[in-house]
Amino acid sequence: xxxxxxxxxxxxxxxxxxxxxxxxxxxxxxxxxxxxxxxxxxxxxxxxxxxxxxxxxxxxxxxxxxxxxxxxxxxxxxxxxxxxxxxxxxxxxxxxxxxxxxxxxxxxxxxxxxxxxxxxxxxxxxxxxxxxxxxxxxxxxxxxxxxxxxxxxxxxxxxxxxxxxxxxxxxxxxxxxxxxxxxxxxxxxxxxxxxxxxxxxxxxxxxxxxxxxxxxxxxxxxxxxxxxxxxxxxxxx
Amino acid sequence: xxxxxxxxxxxxxxxxxxxxxxxxxxxxxxxxxxxxxxxxxxxxxxxxxxxxxxxxxxxxxxxxxxxxxxxxxxxxxxxxxxxxxxxxxxxxxxxxxxxxxxxxxxxxxxxxxxxxxxxxxxxxxxxxxxxxxxxxxxxxxxxxxxxxxxxxxxxxxxxxxxxxxxxxxxxxxxxxxxxxxxxxxxxxxxxxxxxxxxxxxxxxxxxxxxxxxxxxxxxxxxxxxxxxxxxxxxxxx
Lengths: 237, 237
What we know:
Two copies of one chain form a homodimer.
Chain A: E1 5-9, H1 14-25, E2 32-35, H2 43-48, E3 57-60, E4 63-66, H3 68-78, H4 89-104, H5 116-123, H6 128-147, H7 161-180, H8 191-202, H9 204-207, H10 213-232
Parallel strand pairs in A: 1-2
Antiparallel strand pairs in A: 1-3, 3-4
Helix pairs in contact in A: 1-3, 1-7, 4-7, 5-6, 5-7, 7-8, 7-10
GO molecular function (chains A, B): glutathione transferase activity
EC number (chains A, B): 2.5.1.18
Pfam family, one (chains A, B): GST_N
């Protein structure tokens, strides 16, 4: 019986991108992609993820799975070849810890999870929040840099779970830099992380599945405009 | 060689309690417990969990693991008998989804993660936030109630990962009710969840390892006083 496999995503969601990468790394090419418009979500998305109403959702033989890190584990446990997580329990715990760290470090009203600190730094440039955010980002980056000591990827010689979890930074940070004219990731201070970004981006499966850069620049230019307008109006609500 | 196993906890941490329960459910009795004072954390705790500086930390043969849900998975993968997670990948994903839901539903400045909504409801009673928090808690409880249809525990007939993740509610909600005089979990509206709380509390390993109720009441009376004082002073900062 042919398996039914569907991915609900948006063109730009960094969480959904994780699922695409994981499937491709597993060599799974046969799946249907449903592109959602987050301003007008489909009834199917709301049915499959009634709790969070968000992409990504993976539907496997009728069963929906939500939350990108949960989906990654599901993919890894369902298709066991080309493992994303290492075998050793301690290494697995380490991978989960850092993926969770990336996703939960901060929490804002505007944009939830992950990258918030990066995004704050880049886009809240006019507010005092930025002064507080930058040292925090630097501290976080230092922790992440340390994880790469002696390794090409977080997963060792090949990319795995943590690489996929942090993967969006390898693309989006340079978009943020282009849009805001601000450079956070200094190659001299973070040589391993800088090298990782290049190594990660060079993996064919990753490179071939980035959202179009010009569209991302336009998207984040709009974000920038919104923040600038809010700053001109006296800062965030 | 005897294994070295240490748990860094506080007397009341609901996250640390998960680790104690999991070890006991695995039949692991031989471990050292280090009780931390969160107002004066030990150098060892800071060394083992430099990123979050929080309990619980499990140290296994010199290797520290942090983040309670990550530790639960580590325990389950290291000692495979009496599994906490089910075998089926979809059921595992479901368990992880709900545990994550419980831990990440909200995010406030005061108290991070989990229970925040419950705590908001109980303690922010004087502020308008409470009006917003109650319907949200009810919605969350409805989702959780649904997961118990046809099951005694989230894990089926025996307690598992999700039960352990939600387990604190079976104890603390009644403490909150006693302290604030407010009842959120209506047995008629949530019969399955109410039954689950009783069933969960009745499991010997769970019952024997609750923090002392009188101390919890005193702790949350102090929390209540703090919120009342803040309300009298014109609400939260």
